[in-house]
Write a structure and sequence with these properties.
Elements (H helix, E strand, L loop, with lengths): L5 E5 L2 E2 L4 E7 L2 E6 L5 E5 L3 E5 L2 E2 L5 E5 L2 E2 L3 E9 L2 E8 L4 E5 L3 E5 L5 H15 L14 H7 L2
Antiparallel strand pairs: 1-2, 1-6, 3-4, 4-5, 7-10, 8-9, 8-13, 10-11, 11-12
Helix pairs in contact: 1-2
């Protein structure tokens, strides 16, 4: 099962990682799990099969999953069905992890285009500004530089 293109929720739990194949069989779904030859039958009411995701442009964005900033992201896919939202995040190593919609926050940066150059300029100015440097502690970066490094 391609984790970037499908999410299979069985009885409210993401089971995509365990599913080898799924097909609609009349009014039920026939699901074959990995490491077994048996095919299980599920009512349509118990299955949410999401496919055909939308690719999310995450350039100039900060992506948070469960409150933690994610790094080394290769791709983000959004699965939406009415009010239900899930994300598939592919990391640089090729690992794909699924998240429910309330677990992911994507914050777009206002620093795009020429604003990025202005921000870089202000950051360089802050690095040479001595505001907040203790005279005894010559290695301190100062207040402004520490503030810009956190942005």
């Amino acid at each position: 099962m391609n984790l970037e293109n499908h999410i299979i929720i069985i009885n409210g739990i993401d089971k995509t990682y365990q599913v080898e194949s799924i097909r609609l069989d009349g009014y039920k779904y026939a699901i074959k799990f990995q490491n077994t030859d048996k095919i299980y039958s599920y009512s349509r009411d118990n299955i949410l099969w999401l496919s055909n995701p939308t690719s999310i442009d995450f350039e100039n964005c900060h992506v948070f999953a469960n409150g933690k900033k994610e790094k080394n992201i290769k791709a983000i896919h959004l699965f939406a069905n009415n009010a239900v939202r899930y994300y598939a995040i592919t990391y640089g190593s090729g690992f794909v992890k699924h998240y429910s919609g309330n677990e992911v926050d994507i914050h777009r940066s206002c620093l795009t285009g020429k604003a990025t150059n202005v921000f870089d300029y202000l950051q360089q100015c802050a690095a040479i500004n001595t505001l907040g440097i203790n005279e005894e502690d010559e290695s301190s970066e100062g207040i402004l530089s520490s503030v810009y490094s956190r942005i």
